[in-house]
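Example 4.3 (complexes with small molecules)
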Amino acid sequence: MRRTTKSQQVARVLFSEAQLSAMVGRVAREIERDYRALGEPPVLLGVLNGSVVFLSDLMRALEIPCDVDFVAVQSYRGERSTGAPQLRLSPKTPLAGRHVLVVEDILDTGVTLSYLCREYLPQFDAASVKLCALLDKPSRRLPGAVCADYAGAVIPDLFVVGYGLDYDEAYRDLPYIGVLSGAPEHKE
Ligand code: IMP
Ligand code: MG
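Answer. The structure with magnesium ion bound is encoded below.
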C-alpha cells in the first residue's frame, strides 16, 4: 500500500497525539509504582521495530531510572506462518538478576511475546520478566499465550498503524494511531 502524504489512506484516527501522551503517562505511573517497590531500575527491552516510538516516549515519561536495550524477532505470518518466531537481534545488556520489562507496540496473537518470554529470555536468569504493550488486541489471542502486565489500551480487531506500528513498513512515522481505509481485518 503506497502513499504520498502522511495521512493518505488513514480512514480515521483511533488515538490522537494527546490521547497517546496521556496513555503513556498512565502506563508510566503504573510501572513506576511497581518498580519503585522493587528498588531496582528495570531494563526496558524494546522489540524492534514497532516499539521504538512508544519506548522513547515511555522512558522519558518514567520518573525512575531505567536501562534500555532491544531485541528483534522475525515472526512468520500469513502464507509463511508455518515457522516459529526467530531471534534476529539479541540484547547487549547482561540480564542476569535484572528486572526486565519487555516493551512492545501491540500484543495480537501473542506468538511473538510468548516466544520471547517463554523460550528466549529464560536463558538469561533475569530476576523478573514482565510485558508492557502499548495496545492489547485480545480478540486474536491464541489459547495459553502470554498476557500484558501493562497495556495502554485494549482495542478491537482492527489493523492500526502509526506511532511505530506499520503496514508493510509504512506509516510508522505517523504521530497518531489510525485505522487504514480498506485495511486488512488483521495482518496476513
Ligand atoms: P503477535 O505475535 O501476533 O502478538 O504479533 C505481534 C506483532 O504483530 C506486533 O509486534 C506487530 O508488529 C504486528 N501487529 C499485530 N497487529 C498489528 C496491527 O494492528 N498493526 C500493525 N502491526 C500489528
Ligand atoms: Mg512489532
